[in-house]
Amino acid sequence: MSGPRTPGFAWRVLGQDANARAGVLTTPHGDVPTPTFMPVGTQGSVKTLAPAEVAATGARIVLGNTYHLWLRPGPELIDSLGGLHGFTRWPHAMLTDSGGFQAFSMADRRSVSEDGFVFRSHLDGSRRALSPEEAMRVQGLLGADIAMQLDVCPPGGAPRDEVERAVAQTTRWASRCLASRREGQAVFGIVQGGTHVDLRRAHADELGALPFDGLALGGFSVGEPVESMHAALPEVAPHLDPERPRYLMGVGTPRDLLIAIGAGVDMFDCVLPTRNARNGQALTRRGPLVIKQARYRDDPRPIDPECGCGACRGGYSRAYLRHLFLAREILVLRLLSEHNLWLYGEIVAGARAAIVERRYESYSRGWLEGLSEGQ
Amino acid sequence: MSGPRTPGFAWRVLGQDANARAGVLTTPHGDVPTPTFMPVGTQGSVKTLAPAEVAATGARIVLGNTYHLWLRPGPELIDSLGGLHGFTRWPHAMLTDSGGFQAFSMADRRSVSEDGFVFRSHLDGSRRALSPEEAMRVQGLLGADIAMQLDVCPPGGAPRDEVERAVAQTTRWASRCLASRREGQAVFGIVQGGTHVDLRRAHADELGALPFDGLALGGFSVGEPVESMHAALPEVAPHLDPERPRYLMGVGTPRDLLIAIGAGVDMFDCVLPTRNARNGQALTRRGPLVIKQARYRDDPRPIDPECGCGACRGGYSRAYLRHLFLAREILVLRLLSEHNLWLYGEIVAGARAAIVERRYESYSRGWLEGLSEGQ
Q1: What's the complex ipTM?
Q2: Cis (ω within 30 of 0) for the bond into B194?
Q3: What is chain A's mean pLDDT, rounded?
Q4: Is B334 on the interface with A (CB under 8 A)?
Q5: Which of A39, A365, B64, B368 has the maximal Cβ count within 10 Å?
Q6: B118 touches chain A (CB under 8 A)
Q7: Could you give phi then psi for residue B140, rounded to 5 degrees?
Q8: Domain A32-270, what fold?
Q9: Is the CB of residue B122 less than 8 Å away from at least one CB of chain A?
């Protein structure tokens, strides 16, 4: 299958270098250059940052978490206030997950059946049922540019027969999600299969036969050894329909991104850069910098002299950032969040240029060497 | 006495309307139009906000708390990193308090003697001694444009003889502070006397005879009924040397500012706008708005349609801000902090214009009526 499936939505390749691709994702809220990293706005806010600050890092698409927004403030309310775009004032593209992953990982007393997930809200204990149809209804009300199908995501290391059942269930839900999608909203399918390359490829073919606007890899970075993911990606990602964008869900570290882009992945999301920022970890081209360490007590340098983010350009010293972190001042959480997303923005922007210029291998190797240098 | 006392520091009147004055405070870090409100940067950061956001509210001077910065990260470290200006990247004027008030209110096992305060740090229990000379040494290292003398501040409702002893002690410390000041740093004296107008006036005369660059009113808003302060201010503030700026410490609400400006006060500081913001209270020209209230659940309006702050101009609805507050998202603390400081900036900017145009009485009355309207 090829060409646009949903009006206003398209993806085209601008350049390819071995398996790595550079492209542009067109959405009703603007173009998104790929490879792209989607900062996570779990509850309608990329934590600590305002929309303009997120966009300044180069991000042109963010992810919202359906599970959280479904429970609070509720999709009907968000719909009545202009959808997630109007509600949060994020002007660029947006994607929502299905809610299934978090319903299963965060909620109490959850169970899964042919009809979806049943669980108790972690906020008020209320009983909730998330079927494929409900996942699409809620995402339709949230109104992101891209919705994700409901899927079953087994934990890393699950037995093969459990993974096979998850794959089969995900395929049955795929058709139900497509049948109940909101008009005008793009929908991505989710390929499962753990680290079993044969299951992954078969599932990619099954879902590729359906009119999804993109294909995601779910069930990576869910507890399996990171080397297993790195080994599986080059076997699996190139097998996903090359005419649709490929999205690796919930991944990852800078190293993960560089390896996955090399394997042909176009889109990523992860809480790592913003969560680690709030824990005082600045990510740099020379690896992580833990700001509370005593070695930075009187260090007048910015986090990274080569970085162009507001924290580094703003002249804030490591000594000042360390002080703010020890004093529990919110400003440092903002500055580190902005810095970390900036690094991710630089990685994907540089990757796009390198792919078009057919030098991705050396680009990636340069980054990987720097990342392992240490502070 | 008249004319500048410290090189690079001056204050001149641009207009007067009854007791209210509009002027300009000249400092080594730029001019500060008065009346002015100083946002409080307790630990080297106006909580939740970046310097440019603070300046956007109209603030051209902020206050740093010597007690906190003395204990952590320490004045020597701050001095080595360019003083508070270099450390925090605030480019405009800055004032530090003496540390005495917080040493007495926050520390453990504190005592006061002729030589100053002795106390245990609230952070690590270490024994600290804050003499007039140490207060000036620490403030000299912090390097703000304006330092405050060490004073004794009795609680509201203290017996008259305790207030008299505090006044006398403050006067003796005044001379010691001036004798140990850092060259080039302006120093303000602090008039005590509680709500006793005769004590206040006598103390104002005593301190006015010393070469302070400005005179402050300490010991207001320390537990006494607010009506007592409102009644005392017009009896006391005009009695302070009119050729020097007058600073009402730790005050206050929008209503307090309007009344004190009418009594001839030029400078204010208070944690109220930023602290109340973090508690979910937006201050508006129609009084406070408690963002978590259910009435704002689906309210599409900004906090204040007349406000020009980033939160109100940015299109964030009350419903969205309420959601963020209930979800404990940091962004709402920033937006409310910016909004509240913006309101304070508007009050003092409007007061300056009204004073020059000799219509302060009606300006103040208009605000006071609006503030009591309610949401």
Answers
A1: 0.97
A2: no
A3: 96
A4: yes
A5: B64
A6: no
A7: -65, -40
A8: TIM Barrel (3.20.20)
A9: no
